[in-house]
Amino acid sequence: MANPKHLEMVLDHVPSALILLDADRQILQRNRAAEELIPQLEPGMDIWEAMSSFANEEKVDRIMRGERMVLSAGSDQPAFEWMVTVDRPENGYLVVMAWDASLNYETIQGRITFIMAASHELRSPLTALLGFAEILELDGDGLTAQQAEAVAVIRRNAEHLNSMLDDVIDLSRNSFGELRLELEPLEINGLVDGVCETLRPQIESKEQTLKVSAETGLKPIEADAQRIRQIVFNLLQNAHKHNPPGTNIGVSTRSSDEGIRLAVNDDGLGLPFTNPEDAFRSFRRGPREGDSETAGSGIGLAITRRVVELHRGTISVESTRDEGTTFEVWLPYDREKARLLITPDRT
Amino acid sequence: MVTVLIVDDSPSIRLLLVRRLEMAGYSTMTSASGAEAIAALDEASGGREPDLILLDAILPDADGPEILDRLKAAGPDIPVLVVSAVTGLAKDKAWTAADGHVAKPIDFDDLLGRVETLTSGPPRP
Fold this sequence. Notes:
Chain A is an alpha+beta fold.
């Protein structure tokens, strides 16, 4: 019944490196993760020799005796946690396992707890900063024009810092699986109109245009209204903030593939990435001169993608330098049916 | 005059709250810890009892909900607004005794509105 090919397939999909050693501690076989993560451990090599480039003999000995140890397979390599199977088979074979130590549950949980605590600690000084800037503004008549300008800069930056903190907290929560959706039937066009009305004054005061083209009679989708509003808001605000005056911004909705396709496009600068998909990676914000104050933490789009995926939808981006950018979000009418179409989570 | 007791371990936040509340016409008292706040209520019995308490959710000397419960025991009729950087306290059972929650950074229009609703408000000119 057991098919060795199947077992090999399974082993090749284990994210940890698995290395089989014979009784003489020579490498017999390795799985795909071992090949990719620690390529220097090649079949036929003696394990001490193979590991000597990154670990001294004493450390390798300790691992071979069954001690768990965190070691990096090179200065630019991530830290791996190493161990061998303790249960020694009669033929003397051993399995060495190594996995990315940063993926360890306690490590991740510890980091998230730390980020959350630090973010909350930062709110107090921010509250004082914003509060006193506001007091100075309330007292506006007593300030010179230059002083008033300085206060406005303090306040704007404190607000920016605060919204970055919101993003950090949101992302830590959702990477910990705390992001929960509250699903209800949602009329997408009404929501888009609401967001557009909120942002229109800002967009038009920068001499940009905003055009909405909505397909009428769309069926409601099953979605978390607050989260979807956040997505539409983020996409539109990005198109507005990161583009110069004169940019034309458009939002459109239409029915497509048992769901709704929502697109936000602009004819502005284009994304500052060679690969536009990089925009969805946390903390990877494109460098752009003079933009640091208006730019976000780069987390906004990572959260946007996560929220779309929780709705079992998809998001894609197309962007050309100096021609513009289009973000397209597809959300299913029926979340249950869409489950079959879901792609594995990216990390 | 309506008096608000401000309980916060940060001198800057205490000063901020004092300034904003006094600008709005309230009188204020401050405490830097839970113990100080409870002592202030004890002394206040008979004297100048606050009409409302603004309580920082995280104080160095004791667990927040415990301080809240002790304040409520000492002054059952005094409304308490809990000020916190953490969202979701309103849903947390430990804080059910609170009369409301205020998020940091503080939206003062909202805060002053709530202080006014929970007390007889600032003196009218």
